[in-house]
Amino acid sequence: MLGVAKRRIAHSIQELSAKAEFAIVYGGFPSARPEVPAALQTFPDHGRPVAALEPAKRGAEAFLAGAPVDRMAVLIDDFRAALRSAEDLAARRKVIVYVGPGYVHDQRYEEALREIRLRNTVGARIFPIGVSPYPEADQFLKALAAQNGGTYLRVD
User: Fold this and answer.
1) Beta partners for 27?
2) Rounded Cα distance, 127 and 130, in Å
3) CB of 86 within 8 A of CB of 124?
């Protein structure tokens, strides 16, 4: 299922106008950069958004194609990086799309919701796509979308 989601994200990036900016934060394999938690990889490497020009779109497509689909990252690390990246966006409207199982370490869902709410100082709308989430994670992702102006989609 995650492979399908990655292809859809790549397609969505291709549809962005040249005026748009984007970045990808992907949990799933080690980073060579010490300031990025080991479970994360970013596109571009510096993690700051880039203009949606053709070279960046091709790079993002290659990045997504090479990202593994069989590892689980810690969701809160993904969101810390994504919210830092959103702070660098020049656009008024900031959006984060989370794709994954919604796994929260030690099942501390309320703590994760609270931390994301406090860190979302730029008012980014968050749209979670739950990939075969457990029931607790499913409820968490619904609450995450509701508290951050997004909508939730579950895929199995």
Assistant:
1) 40
2) 10
3) yes
Selection from 137, 113, 116, 141 nearest residue 127 by Cα: 141
- The answer on pLDDT for 145 being more than 90 is yes
SS3 for 81-128 is HHHHHHHCCCCCCCEEEEEECCCCHHHCHHHHHHHHHHHCCCCCEEEE
Stated length of the chain:
156
Note the pLDDT of residue 29: 47
- At 34, which amino acid appears? P
| C-alpha–C-alpha distance, residues 48 and 50, integer Å | 7
In the structure encoding, which two tokens stand for residue 86, read together? 């959103």
pLDDT in tens, 98-140: 888 887 877 789 999 999 999 999 999 998 888 888 899 999 9
Query: Which two three-digit tokens encode residue 69?
Result: 């689909």
The answer to whether 94 and 108 have CB atoms below 8 angstroms apart is no
| First vs last C-alpha separation in the chain | 7
**pLDDT tens-digit series, residues 11-61:** 888 988 888 888 887 765 444 555 555 456 788 888 788 888 999 999 999
Decide: helix, strand or coil at residue 151: coil
